[in-house]
Amino acid sequence: MASRGRTARDRAPGGAGPFAFAPFRWLLTARTIATLGNAAAPIALAFAVLDLTGSAVDLGIVVASRSIANVAVLLFGGVIADRLPKHLLLVGTSLAAAATQAGVAALVLSGSATIPLLVILSVLNGAVAAVSFPASAAIVPQTVPVAQLRPANALLRLSLNGGAILGASLGAILIAAVGPGWGLALNAASFALAGIVFAFVRTPNAPRTVDAAVPASSVLRELREGWQEFSSRTWVWVVVAQFALVNAAFVGAIAVLGPLVADDSFGRAAWGLIIAAETVGLALGGLLALRWRPRHALGIGVGLVAVTALPIVGLAMVPLVPLLVIAFLLGGVAIEQFGVAWDQSLQQNIPPAKLARVYSYDAVGSFIAIPVGEILVGPLAHLWGTTPVLLGCAAVIVVASLAALSVRSVRRLTVGVPEAAVPDTAVPDITPPDTAVPNAAVPAAATPSEPFVPAASPGKPPRPAPGQA
């Protein structure tokens, strides 16, 4: 692996854990702060729209507008994140997210919110998140040594899940007591504070291999390089295809139909606590991931994604709070095993200088069908009823997970040992010969996604919930 230069982390005691490294501590703090406020954002926005029009279709349009903007900008966000200092990008995107969420909060609190205005602000927020995600995902390898990869991932996700538990619970109480506008205001404040803390995450930039014959400013060239790294590994694009379906089904069911079921049965405050149960499961899953280190962790995690169908089946068949709490908790434990394994697998096998672009392709593929799910579930529920649509979403998750698990390279990838540098030809290589890059396995280190906001998507790239950045 190419040297990234001597940094403070290299001078830390060799056996120290991730907390021994200051950049990791600042990153962990900033992302936890953002999560505290962001956990309430999807709940607040959902009920703000329902209070405004009472329409699941309108809610689907608002959340889908953010997802569409996010997907449209993601690939360019990866190029930007591989070019510029990532901590500065995180400062800027956090402050921009604070501004968009403050605008939504002001509209809701003043009673002047309209669906078109909420759509515009959601589009802006989605574009900001498209730049933030690749930078956040690719900066972690620069904050800890390679040997600390797995514990850093697990600790980061564990801490963020704790913030999500507290944020969702307190946010739900705040929303039920004084209205969704204040939940959105809390989200804006958390992003502003996180932006300040991100300024202290000082890391070196990953090295970049540049062909002197090709202008460094060629965005298309850099996108081709990222595509080469992404498409040459079957296990990568198969799992991304799995999550295109899983995320569309999960987001449509939970973010759009879930609040409707809550309003018709157990109430809004209970819905926030149910969502918090998922983050408790994520936290427990993080503790499990710290101790359980299976060799074929990616295959196991891909199979466990099917467990996230349980909460949807519960909403459809038995919308009782105790049962839903258990179902969401189990789903959280299961998806966390996948999340840690996915992060580590990418980090070990993608060159650091191209990691943000690969995460961008990952996010685009994983998010691209989400607007379809968000837009379709409302009309389909009106046409066929909420229960059949929820059960259909659960079936999609199970089938997609079993299909991905049937692929040999997914089952056999060994976490902890970089894959052999053998190109996979299952996906055609669109990189021209003069810009091709070798498919070399380069150990890197940690990831994205930080578990993100509950009620958005079960895993992989950070959950594309309203308000995320």
Explained architecture:
69% of the residues lie in helices and 0% in strands. It is mostly helical and 469 residues long. The protein has a single domain (20-207, 218-435), classed as Growth Hormone, Chain: A (Up-down Bundle). Helix 5 (115-139) runs antiparallel to helix 14 (355-367) and helix 15 runs antiparallel to helix 16 (386-405). The longest helix is centred in the middle third of the chain and has 31 residues, at 234-264. The chain starts with 21 loop residues before the first helix and ends in a 57-residue tail after the last helix.
User: What is the number of helices?
Assistant: 17
CATH class: Mainly Alpha
Gross morphology is globular
Structural class: mainly alpha
Question: How big is the Rg?
Answer: 21 Å
One letter per element, helices H and strands E, the order comes to HHHHHHHHHHHHHHHHH
> Percent of residues in helical segments?
55-70%
CATH fold description:
Growth Hormone, Chain: A
Stretches where pLDDT falls below 50 for ≥5 residues? 1-14, 209-215, 420-459, 461-469
Give a brief rundown of this model:
With 469 residues, the chain is mainly alpha-helical. It is 69% helix and 0% strand. Residues 1-14, 209-215, 420-459 and 461-469 have low confidence and may be disordered.
